[in-house]
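so my prof wants the structure for this chain in the C-alpha cells format not the other one, which i didnt know existed until like an hour ago. anyway here's the sequence
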Amino acid sequence: MSRPKPLRKAVLPVAGLGTRFLPATKAMPKEMLTVVDRPLIQYAIDEARAAGIEEFCLITGRGKDSLIDYFDIAYELESTLRERNKTEALKALEPSSIEAGSLVAVRQQEPLGLGHAIWCARSFIGDDPFAILLPDDIVKSGVPCMKQLADAYYQTGGSVVAVTEVPRAHTNRYGILKTGKDDGRLVEVQGLVEKPKPEDAPSNLSVIGRYILTADVMKHLAKLEKGAGGEVQLTDAMAKTIGEAPFHGLRYEGERFDCGNKIGFLEAQIAFSLDRPDLAGEVKEFLKKYS
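here's what i got, hopefully its the right format
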C-alpha cells in the first residue's frame, strides 16, 4: 500500500445557534464558551495541531465573527501587555495566534445539517484528506484524540472515525456503526446508520465529533440528499464511501465530554481544572463544601 496523502486540513463546523446555552449564547458563539480559561474552539485547534494539521476552515454563520477575531492579532492588547511586562499573559495568548493565510472561514447560510456544512468547505478540501472536529466534544487524553486518529489513518490509508460505546437505549441520538473485523481498538466499518431506534441499531458503537475522511465523501455530499430530520447527513454520505476505500472506527483512548449540553460542560470544567497544578488544590478544597 502506498503511503496515504498527508493530513494537513481540518474543517470545524461552528455555525450552530447554541440554543441549549441561552441566554449566554444570545450575543456570543457557543464555541467561545470557556472550559477553565480556554474557549472550546481553542481546544479543537490545539488538538488538530497536535496531529500535524496546518490549515483550518471554520464553517460559520451570522453572528459568529468573534470566532475569526479570536485568532487575529490583538495589537493594542499585546502592546499594552508588553509595555507592562506581563510576560505570562502574553504567553497565554500564543495558542490563539494562527499563521497568516492558514485560517479561512466559509458561511453556511442555511442550517441544513452537518453534511451540508462540510459541503460548504468543498473548495478548501479539494482532493485532499481532511479532519473534522466538532468543538462541542472535548477529549481529555494523554495522546490527543486527533493524533490517535491520524496514526490510524496513516496505518489504514482510509477514513477513520472516533467511536465509543453508548447504552443501546441511546442509539437514536447518534450515528451508529455496522461492524466487521474488530481487534478491540480498530474496527472495520461495514455500514453507518444515523440515529437508529434501539431495536434497529446494528451495534452500540457511536461516532463522536472526530473524523478523518478522504475526499471520496464529497461527491456524495454534492448531491445534497436529505436524510434524518430533513437535513443533509454526513453519516449517509460516509456510508456511501464504504467499499470504495478503507473505513475504520477507532476506540480512542481518553474521556470525552459533551460540552454541547450543560451537564457535560460543567463536568469538563471540574475535570480540566483538576488537571491544572495551579488550580487542583483549591478546586478539591471547595468541592468538599458541595459533596
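also thought this was worth mentioning. Residues 13 and 50 are 19 Å apart (CA to CA).
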